[in-house]
Amino acid sequence: MTHAGVTVIFNPRAGGNKQRFLSSILQKAGVKVELLQTTHPGHARELARKVRAHQRLFVAGGDGSLNEALNGLLDAQIEGHEVPPLGIIPLGTANVLAVEVGLDIRAQAIADYINNPGQVWVRPGLVNGRAFFLMVGMGADADTVANVSLKLKKLIGKGAYVLEGIRNIIFPRHRDFEVSIGREQYRVAGVVATHAKHYGGAFVISPDASLTDNTLDVVLMPGSGFMALARYGIALTLNRLHDQTDVSVVKAERLTITSHCGPAPLQIDGESAGKLPCEISLSPYPVRLMVPQAYANLSNVAKDHQDIPDRPILQIAAD
Ligand SMILES: Nc1ncnc2c1ncn2[C@@H]1O[C@H](COP(=O)(O)OP(=O)(O)OP(=O)(O)O)[C@@H](O)[C@H]1O
């Protein structure tokens, strides 16, 4: 990759303030960066929209900040601009995208990645017009994200999600959805449409999913009782959710989901955002994601094997 200027969007609230860790990474990388600090939720989107294509843009924060920056790039693309490649400096609580692409979280490894990233093309997901890199979910997971105590998250990090998740298994709020994929209809208690293998950290939700595929894996969970929800939760922590006998994983480019239990919340890349009904598809605007070299090489080997072109095929006018 050529040595373009580096812009870093930093969320000082991600994962508690990790400014010192960021300074140490940038010092080790030895690059001069333009550092843009967010001052409010949604700010990363505004900042990313203005970063031009000749820069390399890194988001120092969690998956939520990365999602905002991704949406800023989508805004810029819709306005007709070329956009910069996007990378992650993982400072958040769960950092699922960093886990997905195998980015080591030690300062020196991140510094090496900043200086010498690989690159893959990704067609982000779109849900009701909002872009996502990782996943969109509804049911116990979205209720958990919507109701997690921010005070507790500050104190115990991911543990706050575990406690709220258990509460939502015992006292489920929303668990009756209808998923339409092509001509098929599924009545389920929970669903996650994922572009990533990983979920909630290092848990594997769908081993066949890939950020660089032109499909999403739709994980359908029909069981709505306490025992079923508890089993799904435990199976997820053992990376075995996908092979529960009542769970199915369907590959899809487009789906719609409606609620039979009122205006249920959505979680998008781990943040609570919007409510059902929703339409999910893949964005016609691909982005360049900066990843560790090993991940880029593996993706390219897989592409050679499957004869997939370098840049994703656009389907703007299709179906
Ligand atoms: N200056 C700020 N003050 C308050 N909130 C902010 C600020 N900048 C960004 N945010 C918000 O912080 C939220 C959480 O950020 P982010 O996802 O990056 O960190 P995290 O939640 O710790 O990590 P993860 O998503 O990996 O669990 C985002 O929704 C974002 O809108």
UniProtKB/TrEMBL annotation:
Source organism of the structure: Thalassospira alkalitolerans
Pfam families to which the protein is assigned, alphabetical: DAGK_cat, YegS_C
GO molecular function: ATP binding; kinase activity; metal ion binding
GO cellular component, one term: plasma membrane
InterPro entries: ATP-NAD_kinase_N (IPR017438), Diacylglycerol/lipid_kinase (IPR005218), Diacylglycerol_kinase_cat_dom (IPR001206), Lipid_Phosphate_FormReg (IPR050187), NAD/diacylglycerol_kinase_sf (IPR016064), YegS/DAGK_C (IPR045540)
Family matches, as SUPFAM superfamilies: NAD kinase/diacylglycerol kinase-like (SSF111331)
Entry's Gene Ontology BP terms: phospholipid biosynthetic process
Gene3D superfamilies for the chain: 2.60.200.40, Probable inorganic polyphosphate/atp-NAD kinase, domain 1
Cofactor(s) the record lists: Mg(2+)
PANTHER family linked to this entry: LIPID KINASE YEGS, SPHINGOSINE KINASE
Protein name per its UniProtKB record: Diacylglycerol kinase
NCBIfam families on file: YegS/Rv2252/BmrU family lipid kinase
DAGKc domain span: 1-131
Keywords for this protein: ATP-binding, Kinase, Lipid biosynthesis, Lipid metabolism, Magnesium, Metal-binding, Nucleotide-binding, Phospholipid biosynthesis, Phospholipid metabolism, Transferase
Superkingdom assignment: Bacteria
